[in-house]
Each structure stands twice: as C-alpha cells, then as structure tokens.
Amino acid sequence: MTITPYPDGPLLVRGDVELRTSDGEPLPPHRRTVALCRCGLSAIKPFCDGTHKAAGFRTDD
Fold it and tell me: Taking the model in full, what pTM does it have?
C-alpha cells in the first residue's frame, strides 16, 4: 500500500487497504486506488468529492 498526498487535494491510497468508519465498521472496497478527503468539506467523507477545489484548500507540500 502507498499513500501519496496530492498537492492541494486528497490523499491517494493505492493497494490493499481496509478502511473503517469511526464506529469501526469496515467500508466496502470500491477501487484499488481511493482518494481520501483532507480539506474536511467533502459530502462523502472519508472520500474526496472535489470540494477542495472550490473551497481553495491549500497544503504545505
């Protein structure tokens, strides 16, 4: 598994990973690469929905 921070955007997670809800329930895998929200504004958290672009989210990396 690799995790790559996308500049001014989500974390891209590639490979085998098991994601869980805050209650510990597993989230079903959808793809081998997933984009996880870093801006906190996504309507489909923990996944990115592109809201960071309109919000002007910026990272230091």
Answer: 0.85
